[in-house]
Structure formats: C-alpha cells, structure tokens
Amino acid sequence: MDPDKPEIPEVPDTGVEEALLGGERKYTRVQVAERAGVPLERVHRLWRALGFAAAGDDDVVFTDADVEAARIGWELVSSGLIDQDLDAAVTRALGHYLSRLAEWQIQVVQDFLLKQLGDGNRGDEEEVAKLLETALPVILETALPTIERLQTYVWRRHLAAFADRALAVELTQAAQATDPEDAERSQVIGFVDMVGYTRLTRQSDEHELIAILEGFEMAATDAVSEHGGRIVKMIGDEVLFAVDDPAAAAEIAFTLGELAEQEGKLPQLRAGLAYGRVLHRLGDVYGEVVNIAARLTSVARPGTIVVDAGMAGQLRGVPAYDLRSLRPASVRGYSKLKCYALRRAGQDGRDREDRDRHHRDGRGYPPSSSRSPGSSRSSGSSRSSGSPAAGSRSSHSRGHRGR
Predict the structure, then answer these.
(1) What confidence score (pLDDT) does residue 137 get?
(2) Consecutive sets of 10 residues in the chain, 403 residues long: mean pLDDT of each?
(3) What pLDDT, on the 0 to 100 scale, is given for residue 210?
(4) Which of residues 176, 197, 223 is at a domain's end?
(5) Is residue 71 situated within a structural domain?
(6) 193, 270 in Cβ contact below 8 A?
(7) Residue 150 C-alpha from the chain's centroid
(8) What's the domain range around 103?
(9) What's the confidence (pLDDT) of residue 54?
(10) Are residues 252 and 341 in the same domain?
(11) Whether residues 306 and 204 fall in one domain
(12) N or C: which end of the chain has fewer CB within 10 A?
C-alpha cells in the first residue's frame, strides 16, 4: 500500500447501492430471465458483455431495474432495430464507455468528500462515517439527477450532430452501393501524440502529469471539434481522430503542433495523417488507412506532420500547404510506405532563416521542430526504420497500431 495515501475505511451501509440500482437485490439470474421473458443464456451473455462478474444461478444480485433492462434489450433485438449478431458487441461497447464514465464520476465524488473531510480527519473512522451519512444522501438527491439530465443532454446533442449526415447523405450512399466497400466512407484518419511521454512519466509527479494530460486532451478536443472532426479515442499521450475534409485534418494537426510550441505547456507533438476508405463500427474505426496513419506517426520527427500518398493527393495544389516527398518508410506491415512531410506554405524558407540566425548566434541547429524532416539530426530518430523521418517509438506500441 502507498504510505503517502490514507487508508480509506470500509464504507458502511448508507443505502447508496440501493438508491443507485433502483431497489434491493432480490432476484437470481434465472428469475430475471423468467420475469423478463428472455432466454437465460442471453441474460448471462449480456451481463458479462456489460463488464460485470458472472453471477451463479443461485446468486441473488439482481433488482427490478435489471429485469426491466433485460426486457427492453430483448424487445430492441426482437424488433430488428439491433441485429442479433451485433447485440453482444453493442452491449460490450456500451458497458466499456459507461464504466469509464462511472469511474471518473465516483472519483469526483471521492475527491469532493475528502475535501469536506479535511486533512486532519482522514484517519478518523467516526468522522468518515458521519460525513457519509450526511453528505451522500444530498449527493444522491441533488447531484445524481442533475448528472443524469446533463448526460442525456450531451447524448442527444451528439445524436443530432451525427444524424444529419448519417441519416441523409450516408444512408443514401449506402443504399445505392452495389459493392459493400462502396458504402465505406473516405476520410482522413489522424494520430497526434506527445514525444518523450515515457521519459515524462518518470520525471513528473502525479499532479504535473495529470495537468499535462488534461491540457493535451483539452487542446485536442478544441482543435478537432473546431474543424469538424470527431475524436475516436484518447489513448493516454495520443489522440486518434477522424474527419471528412483533408484540409481540416491538416489544420487540426498544425493547430495542435503550434499550440505545443507556442505555449510551452505541452511536450512536442508529432502527427500522422492518412486518407482513404474507413470502416466505422460501434464508434471505432478500422482498416488499412488506420494502420497507415499509425505507422506514419511512428516515423514522424518531433514537431512534424507526415502524410500518406492518398492525403498528399488531396492536398496537392492547395496554396496553404507544401508537401515534401520523403524516402519510403520501412515499418511493420509495409516495406516501402510512400510518405510526405506536410508543412504550411513558406515553412522551408522560415526554417532556413532560423538555421542561419542560430549559426550567427553561435547556437548551432535550432530545435528539431524547426528542422526539415529530411535532416540527419533529430532527437530520438532511428536509421533502422528506413525513413529519414523515423522516430524512436515502435509502431505497434498503441492499440490501433496492431490493426
């Protein structure tokens, strides 16, 4: 146990569980299946898909709300709205995302209660019990309904944001497609990650690291939403996003990189962008384009953006950008991946001025973010990758990079 953290005593029975679950636990899973009119195997399978530990046939762990949920879910499948083959996958995705949300919300409540308790009373079990007895009912009666309303509002807002395109444009395209691949969307997939994150975790304390991660997540959320994109997921030090417009994708990457350099609150960033057909499933993205974007990130130098041939083709001729062909990259799954360094128009000239100024001042080369991706000097570069823009991190060190 961490000696710096106080031991939290066992929480007394305060009625929290009953209030959250909508009643007492009084049914076994067999009884849930009988009362909901749902096959027993389905109850077991979906309970596990939600991310909960398996319950035995005789374990009394379910409530009236569980019976109602089983009935509603079965009705959705029976109506055909949710394909039976996708039922478990949809439930698994729902359980995954909501479990993370629930964990964060409980952390917020815990931090609030610890502040109310004060440093001097954290080891006093009587004070802890008194606080739980007085504060928790207030939280349940006031904060919980408010949070539920806010979550519903955000959910409906996101539904509205996706509905126009998905139900109007994409539905028409999918209905007219004769080949299943034609129904896939052509999009830009982008990865942006922090350089030297592993070293940063060793050098920073918990509060500093949290501040950096929150700053990165906030900047990524602002940049992606401002340019009409969607964050698929945040993976610690990395953001994966999707956007329809190639120029918008470029601006997202530029905005984040420039923000890191100007404000100095974030480590240097690097980005990989790829354009092509993307398979969307249950809020995630799959396909070769996702793999290529991940590989490109792994060969990008600090402060640079590397794009694939598809993305370069979309941006070629756009006055705002310059493209510079790089040597084909040798990365996992691709022996000669064609790639390009993407810069704002005129960036090469500004970099030459920076190098001349640094030489005149006797400071040598400027930081790697200001050097050309073709330069032979770069912090963390690796010649073994076969690319002049190679970085040090393995291409399969993140979830999507193995796809």
Answers:
(1) 78
(2) 49 67 88 92 86 85 92 88 81 86 85 77 73 79 86 88 67 56 76 87 83 89 92 89 95 92 81 94 88 93 95 94 92 88 79 44 37 34 36 41 45
(3) 84
(4) 176
(5) yes
(6) yes
(7) 21
(8) 16-176
(9) 79
(10) yes
(11) yes
(12) N
What pTM did the predictor assign?
0.61
What 3-state class would DSSP assign to 196? coil
pLDDT of residue 371: 35
In residues, how long is the chain? 403
Q: Which two tokens stand for residue 227?
A: 């340019």
Q: How many domains does the chain have?
A: 2
In a domain? residue 235: yes
- Supply the pLDDT for residue 168: 61
Assess if residue 241 is contained within a domain: yes
How far are the Cα atoms of 25, 140, 143 from residue 136, in angstroms, in the given order? 20, 6, 10
Same domain, 239 and 153: no
Pair of tokens at residue 374: 């073709």
Residue 220 shares a structural domain with residue 149: no
Listed in sequence order, the residues at least 6 apart from 172 whose beta carbon sits closer than 8 Å to its beta carbon are none
Phi-psi label, residue 23: left if phi above 0, alpha if psi -120 to 50, beta otherwise = left
DSSP 110: H
Here the tokens at position 176 are 């007219």
**The token pair that represents 387 in the structure block:** 């690319």
Q: Tokens 């959250």 label which residue?
A: 20
Cα angle value 215/6/2 (rounded, 5°) = 75
